[in-house]
Amino acid sequence: MIEQIALFFSIEMIYLWINIGIIPFWLILIFLPQSKICGLFVTSIFPIFILGSLYLYLLYAFLVSGYDFSENFSLYLGLYYLRDLFENDFFLMIFWIHFIAINLFCGSWMVRDSQKFYMPKFLIFFPIIITYFVGPLGVFIYWMLRIFYAKRISLFD
Length: 157
Description:
Elements: H1 2-8, H2 11-21, H3 23-31, H4 36-42, H5 46-65, H6 79-86, H7 89-116, H8 121-133, H9 135-150
C-alpha cells in the first residue's frame, strides 16, 4: 500500500496538487480576510503544517532515493551552480514548496497586521495578490501602504 501511495505522489502530481491546493487559501485571504474560516484555516498553523508535512515527506523520499543533499550547498558558489541545482526535479520541488509556504505566511501576516490597524480589506487586496505571485514585492507594497495608514514607521513590528 505504501508503494502505491509513493507511486501516486510523484513529483509532477505533488506539484499539481500544491498549485491547485494553495488557491483556496489565497482566495480566502483576498476575499474573506476577516472571516472565522480565514482565522481557522489560513492565518493559523494549519497551512504551514500541511506544507511542512509535505516537505518532510519529500525529504524522506529524496533521502531514500539516494539524493545527495550536500550538492545543495553549492548554490552559494555562484549562479552557474544554482542553475545546475534547478535542473534537478528534487531540488526544484523542495524550493517550490518553500516559496509557496513563505508567500502564504507573508500573506497571512499581512492580513493579521492590517486587521490590527483596522485597514480596509480593499486596501490590502493588491498587495496580497502581488505577494501570491512575487512575495517580496507584495510585502514591500503592503509595508508602504501600512506606513501611510498607520502614520508611523517602526522597524521592529
